[in-house]
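Input/output pair, single chain:
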Amino acid sequence: MRLFIQVPCLNEEETLPLVLESIPERIDGIDEIFVLIVDDGSTDRTVEVARAHGVEHFVFHTRNMGLARSFRDGVDYAMQHGADIVVNTDGDNQYPQQSIAELVQPVIHGQADIAIGDRQTKTIEHFSPFKKVMQAVGSKVVNYAAETDLPDAASGFRAYSREALIRLNVVTQFSYCMETIIQAGNKRLRIASVPIKTNPKTRESRLFSNIFQHMAQSGQAIVRSYLIFKPYAVFTTLALIFLIAAAIPFVRFLILFSTGNGAGNIQSLVFGVGMLVASLLCIALLVISDMLRTNRILLEDAMERIKLVQYAEERLLDPHRPDEVHVAPAGLQHD
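Output:
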């Protein structure tokens, strides 16, 4: 069984040695372990440091393209080189690389398609009380959308099976964390949670400038994913709310009209008509969303088949041969 450990990096020359030196060289159930550096447009000595530590597999972005794109390109590279399991960690040494051995065990033994490291956020000292509360609330929201029960949905320390990665498709520009959980939950993939202890904080996050930006971006990704998989829940609820809001002024007007006091209450009819139009619009959006959802299912089924053929052919690539891939903003280009 072949394991690829991908490390997205953006100017991590100071912390990357800590990451690389703590990655286990042997794991029970794994035959081969390879480290993949996804350089997201670094301008420091990140790449030189990685080479000095023996890393031979690289994906280079010509400029900073974000965590979601780094994850996607790293997965594509690993799958082309025959990865059976892909572990994603961070270049800032937030996660304990020694725990990779425990993280991959549910996947190795067929107990899960995805394993997520539970940082036990309530015990992290450098997390403010507000951030701890928001982490808990965010996990509950994601669990509701994905129909899962994960204590730490925002954790980026994850292990994915080959089969899971073939079925998942990352389209967001911000972070893959929320989107992949909601996809996995709605596609009935098995997700396991593995308790871990995080390392001391080394720097501020470069993914977002403050927690409110992170909440806004994550919320946007959650809403988008939820609408894709459960349009009925959203638009049916909205249609009923607007329908009730339309019925109330209509009933009020009819009661007043029947008692001879209807004059001067035409505004109730105007408001009711507006709410009725909004309800009908929600029904129309529901029909359109359901059609788009059906189309997405068919497209993803076709993409799964394409991936199976593509990666089956490229699985013969020798992972022991040093290799590099340069990714321009327009798309993936092989040297």
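The longest helix spans residues 266-314. The chain is about 50% helix and 15% strand.
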